[in-house]
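Lab notes, practical 5.
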Amino acid sequence: MPRSTRKGPPSAGASAGNGRSGQAPYHQPSLLDSTDSEEQVLYDQYRQFVDENPRLLDCMIRLARDWKTRRGAVRIGINCLIETARYHVMISTTDPEYKINNNFGPYFSRDIASRCPDLAPLFHFRASRADRHFNMVFVPGGGPRLDRGPGAS
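Output from the prediction step:
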């Protein structure tokens, strides 16, 4: 017997397309869902990690500059830089406990953009609680820009 091709909302009791009958749709947590104190702890962990591993951020900046030189203004995902830097640093360290927290992505991209504004166009920024730590301001239709304070251009 052929399946129905009926379009419209699912009938009562049916799954709403999330594969979990009778359950609320899955919600992917983000930094915007975290509390201010949770976000501050994550930022503090990021700062400590970067302070203890400065060559990682330097490596990511070198990789971003190399990308820009070879590819122009084509965007690159921060996770690509994190994974590539992770590889380069891990093969040159003897520390078996060396790990990069995957939740640091928004901080790395904003840190690189604030240190090297010419690299900012390589990243696609989404609104994040990490913005406040790097003075990021979102301009409608223009993406992010660094807020240099009053009177700055």
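Observations recorded by the TA: Residues 6-18 have pLDDT under 50 and may be disordered. Residues 11 and 21 are 11 Å apart (CA to CA).
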